[in-house]
Design brief:
The protein is an alpha+beta fold and 603 residues long. It has helices at residues 24-39, 116-124, 145-153, 172-182, 197-211, 241-246, 249-265, 271-291, 300-303, 317-330, 338-349, 355-416, 420-424, 444-451, 465-469, 471-474, 479-499, 507-513, 532-537; strands at 11-17, 49-53, 56-65, 68-79, 82-93, 98-106, 127-129, 131-132, 138-140, 161-165, 191-195, 217-221, 238-239, 459-461, 526-527, 543-545, 555-557, 561-565, 572-579, 585-593. It folds into two domains: 11-273, Glutaredoxin (3-Layer(aba) Sandwich); 426-602, no CATH class. A hairpin with a 6-residue loop joins β18 and β19 (572-579). The chain starts with 10 loop residues before the first strand and ends in a 10-residue tail after the last strand.
Length: 603
């Protein structure tokens, strides 16, 4: 959400409800039950204030405004995973209804596991993100396909929807139980459906191949989609059968959970959430400041003692003089005159701040300082993202204009050579001279599967699968995936040109020449080598596997690479080794985030 401490790995849920008046009591009851074990006993959420535990701090605040009643608690805690801040906010109207938000933020920016409190709240209240949210996936029959489609198209949805499809070749119930585990980290953030075989057939018949879900896969549907338009379908990614069958269950749960968190982090916060959070910050700050206001001291009259009745002191004069001297030294006084003693009295009875209140004030100021710093960082990141998007747009526009000029030139040449029917005719479907690579893969797993089929085309992948798997969490919209596919096809086309014995250039020259009839990657997003500084300073960081017939060590330096997509500080790259003059193969040794260099080493 729109908060300076937000990151794409935080847990941030926002739900609305139509529950009748009094539903806030259910929220507080579940919250108290969740907090009790953390503080070693019952926690009273009925009173405003601050509760402290071991390495924990809980702040409870209430505020009423325009017939709406808000309650918020903020718990800060530290453990081995770092510092976490959990914020639960509920706002109820006099006539019922309202909304609830649950945020768990990590200072370290690490993946935040789904809080158990999310499931507790979904179990006792009908909470919605467009449609009703549940703690486990829906089992959907053919009769419910219309409900599934309505949920996908609901304009009020902020989070993704996960749809798993099946057929009659594998038992349904065991698969559905696996989906329960795979979606465990999406609870409260994404709704999930598992379609039985008949429901899967019905959904795919109504949505078509472009928007449908293949059997034994899980598709992520982003908010704001238009199922009647083909535009944007590719961004709604499919987790393939091979991945579901081969990857660890915990990894799949974290993968889908990371996608759900990233989707929500990219959406603006609901305006009512933003307004109430600002209100609660003011309420909290005012309460802490008031508690830290100096308390009036007592007057001298109030503390003055009656004149003592002095006994006969003669026998103990020496002892009493010694005691008075000890008092003088303890009070650090030059003497025990009346004026000196009155100065001590004034200091002891003056207005003062309680130590605990002063501590709270200092902590609040520290939180405000951290928030300001994180706001600046977030603003810098947003500005960088905007600059990157603008630059990408300029590059895309330049490439489009170049292709249009090329198309006009070729069209003119065809017409001048009496080939107008070809110039203006439709491209035949399945024409191998135009495109025989098939449809673009929609997951990185399917990309690697497709590359595995391209040995005869001159391209082989030798890299580490873990590097590729990491991209699933970063490249949510599939920008780098699309560019990676284009790069692979371009390498295949380059290998085809080299095999024809009509082309002798390298990959960079091939992309520059843009040979007619060949598909090419944008030249300005390809690097023929690395800088001399990178080669020297980070020697060995670009060394990747190849067959030992190329190098006995089984490794070679791969400096040539494709720049795939720019996503914050996690730009993606594809490094390769061109051995078309030897084995006739191009080896892709790395597909992942940007490798270390002078810039990334500082991040």
């Amino acid at each position: 959400m729109d908060d300076p401490t937000s990151s794409s790995q935080d847990y941030r849920a926002f739900w609305t409800t139509d529950a009748p008046p009094g539903w806030t009591a259910s929220v507080l009851s579940q919250a108290a039950g969740w907090l009790g074990p953390k503080f070693g006993g019952d926690v009273d959420l009925a009173r405003d204030g601050i509760v402290r535990g071991e390495a924990k701090r809980l702040e409870i605040r209430r505020h009423d405004h325009d017939s709406k009643h808000g309650v918020r608690f903020v718990m800060e805690e530290e453990n081995r995973g770092g510092r976490f801040v959990t914020t639960l906010t509920s706002v109820e109207a006099d006539r019922g209804g309202g909304w609830v938000s649950l945020d768990v933020l990590s200072d370290a920016g690490s993946f935040v596991n789904r809080p158990r409190l999310a499931g507790y709240l979904l179990d006792v209240l009908e909470l919605r993100d467009g449609t009703r949210m549940t703690a486990t996936p829906h089992r959907a029959t053919a009769a419910r396909v219309s409900d599934v489609i309505a949920a996908l198209e609901n304009p009020g949805r902020r989070g993704p929807i996960l749809v798993a499809a099946t057929d009659d070749k594998i038992p349904f119930d065991p698969f559905a139980r696996l989906v329960d585990g795979w979606t465990s980290e999406t609870v409260g953030l994404a709704q999930a459906y598992v379609l039985d075989p008949l429901a899967s057939v019905e959904l795919n018949a109504r949505l078509g191949q472009r928007w449908g879900v293949p059997a034994w896969t899980i598709r992520t549907y982003l908010p704001g989609i238009d199922l009647s338009s083909p535009v944007g379908a590719r961004a709604n990614r499919i987790l393939g059968t091979a991945r579901l069958g081969n990857d660890r269950d915990k990894y799949l749960a974290r993968l889908l959970g990371g996608v759900a968190r990233s989707v929500i982090a990219d959406r603006p916060a609901p305006p009512q959430w933003r307004s109430w959070q600002r209100t609660f910050v003011r309420v909290s700050t005012s309460a802490i400041a008031e508690s830290a206001t100096p308390r009036p001291g007592r007057s001298r009259r109030e503390v003055a003692a009656p004149a003592p009745v002095l006994p006969d002191l003669a026998p103990d004069v020496a002892r009493l003089e010694a005691e008075l001297e000890r008092v003088r030294i303890t009070l650090e006084l030059a003497d025990l005159s009346e004026s000196a003693l009155l100065e001590v009295l004034d200091a002891a009875t003056s207005d003062r701040i309680e130590p605990e209140s002063l501590r709270e004030l200092r902590e609040e100021l520290d939180r405000q300082r951290r928030g300001a710093e994180l706001t600046e960082k977030r603003l810098d990141a947003s500005q960088l993202k905007l600059l990157v998007a603008e630059d990408d747009g300029r590059r895309a526009e330049a490439e489009r204009e170049r292709q249009e000029r090329r198309a006009r030139y070729l069209t003119k040449a065809l017409v001048e050579n009496n080939l107008a029917s070809i110039a203006f005719g439709e491209v035949p479907e399945g024409d191998e001279s135009v495109d025989d690579y098939g449809s673009e893969p929609v997951t990185y797993a399917s990309l690697l599967e497709r590359i595995g089929e391209f040995r005869d085309r001159g391209v082989v992948f030798t890299g580490d699968l873990k590097d590729v798997e990491g991209l699933e969490l970063i490249d949510v919209e599939g920008k780098a995936l699309t560019m990676a596919w284009t790069a692979v096809v371009s390498l295949c086309e380059y290998a085809r040109a080299k095999k024809s014995d009509k082309y002798q250039g390298n990959v960079h020259k091939f992309l520059e020449d843009q040979l007619p009839g060949y598909r090419c990657y944008p030249l300005n997003q390809h690097a023929a080598t690395e800088t001399g500084f990178t080669k020297k300073q980070y020697k060995g960081t670009r060394r990747f596997p190849v067959p030992k017939e190329i190098d006995v060590s089984g490794l070679v330096d791969m400096y040539e690479h494709f720049k795939l997509a720019r996503i914050d500080n996690l730009d993606q790259r594809m490094h390769y080794y061109d051995d078309t003059t030897g084995t006739g193969i191009i080896y892709i040794g790395y597909l992942g985030t940007h490798l270390v260099n002078a810039m990334t080493s500082k991040l």
